[in-house]
From TrEMBL:
This is DUF2293 domain-containing protein. It holds the Pfam family DUF2293. It comes from the Bacteria. Residues 139-224 form the DUF2293 domain. InterPro entries: DUF2293. PANTHER family: DUF2293 DOMAIN-CONTAINING PROTEIN, PTHR38113. Residues 223-244 are annotated as: Disordered. It comes from Streptomyces dioscori.
Length: 244
């Protein structure tokens, strides 16, 4: 197994974290935590004119790249990994002011990303409100007897973003009659009948559905008929505007 003792090539000076105790060949200081090999002789960072640089450990790719961009002089720091038989990058040495500028750029990015997320969230919230209102109007159009607050609750529940419930399915998006009926049926089942109690008491789902089917149909028929004065049944799609 050839363990090459030659560090990888890199731009600028290469700084080594020595495994053995090394002393500077010029000033004699040591043992050195970091050194530069010059013509086979270790030198301390001060003697190698790198003493003014600060160490930035590896791990933050953007910060590292920007620090090196900002730094007039920078050096890669490596250490020899005996078992793997190769030099591995530990970080970089950069000018302190360059590191500060790079940190500011990264913070500015994070701040910009945070602001964009806030804008996106506001826009989605507005879309959800419009969607829920349109859905509620369609519930009231098909089920005039459904109380307005119940219609809105059903619409809001059905249109929760990403929930996978009927309101956000493709059909729900299109506000089709089938999607509206399905959302109303689910709501009636859970809130106007003992369906949930049946499930909690151990009744199998299909048996529970069978037991409440008549009650569900009754409530839905009542809501379909029950417009106070029968309005809302005709006219174009309710989501186009008007209404309420
Ligand atoms: Zn020295």
């Amino acid at each position: 197994m050839a363990t090459t003792a030659t560090p990888p090539p890199s731009n600028g000076p290469l700084v080594v974290q020595p495994l053995k105790r090394r002393h500077c060949g010029e000033c004699g200081r040591g043992p050195l935590p970091l050194l530069v090999m010059e013509e086979g002789t270790p030198r301390c960072l001060d003697c190698a004119d790198l003493g003014h640089l600060v160490f930035l450990p590896r791990g933050d790719t953007a910060l590292t790249r920007r620090s090196r961009e900002e730094s007039g002089l920078s050096a890669v720091v490596v250490r020899f990994h005996r078992r793997r038989g190769r030099y591995e990058r530990q970080g970089v040495l950069v000018e302190e002011a360059a590191l500060a500028r790079a940190e500011e750029r990264c913070l500015a990015d994070a701040e910009a990303r945070r602001r964009r997320r806030t804008r996106d969230a506001r826009r989605r919230a507005a879309e959800d409100v419009r969607f829920t209102d349109a859905f509620a109007r369609n519930i009231r159009r098909l089920f005039p007897g459904c109380p307005a607050d119940r219609a809105h609750a059903i619409a809001a529940h059905a249109s929760v973003r990403g929930s996978g419930r009927v309101g956000r399915s493709a059909a729900g998006r299109a506000l089709s009659e089938a999607a509206v009926v399905s959302a109303v049926r689910a709501a009636v089942r859970h809130t106007e009948t003992p369906y949930d109690q049946l499930l909690m008491s151990g009744v199998a789902r299909h048996e529970a559905r069978r037991r409440i089917a008549a009650a569900v149909d009754g409530t839905m028929a009542c809501w379909r008929e029950g417009g106070p004065d029968g309005e809302g049944r005709e006219g174009g799609p309710a989501w186009e505007g008007e209404d309420d």
